[in-house]
Amino acid sequence: MYSIRDVQDIISHIVSTKGHVGVRDGGIEIHIHGGLSGQEFREIENTAWKGGLVLDRIYYHRNSDSLAIRFRKLRE
Questions:
Q1: I need a labelling partner for 37 at 20 to 30 A (CA). Which of 14, 23, 48, 68 fits?
Q2: Residue 44, φ and ψ in degrees, nearest 5
């Protein structure tokens, strides 16, 4: 199982030219500027799952004109 820091590093590598990743409220939030392929999304989701995170929400972030993807800790 990955730590939050490991998840952040791996996802940062996947979206290195397209966006940035931050730790927020014990989860991960990704802001993508431009597109994201299905393969990249699957890699991100699999990495998050290995870190004990589940998809929380996907939304358009108006302030930064980006796609935001948020993963949170799995509730016990």
A1: 23
A2: -65, -50
Q: What pTM value is reported for the model?
A: 0.87
The alpha-carbon radius of gyration of the chain (Å, integer) is 11
Question: Do 57 and 14 touch, CB atoms closer than 8 A?
Answer: no
What is the residue-wise DSSP string for 11-76?
Answer: HHHHTTTTEEEEEETTEEEEEESS---HHHHHHHHHHHHHTTEEEEEEEEETTTTEEEEEEEEPP-
What tokens appear for 65 in the block?
């004109």
| Residue 75 pLDDT greater than 90, yes or no | no
> Domains of the chain by range and CATH?
4-73 (3.30.980.10)
Distance, CA of 61 to CA of 5 (rounded, Å): 24
What secondary structure letter does DSSP report for 6? H
Spell out the residues 6+ positions from residue 1 whose beta carbon is closer than 8 angstroms to its own: 50, 51, 52
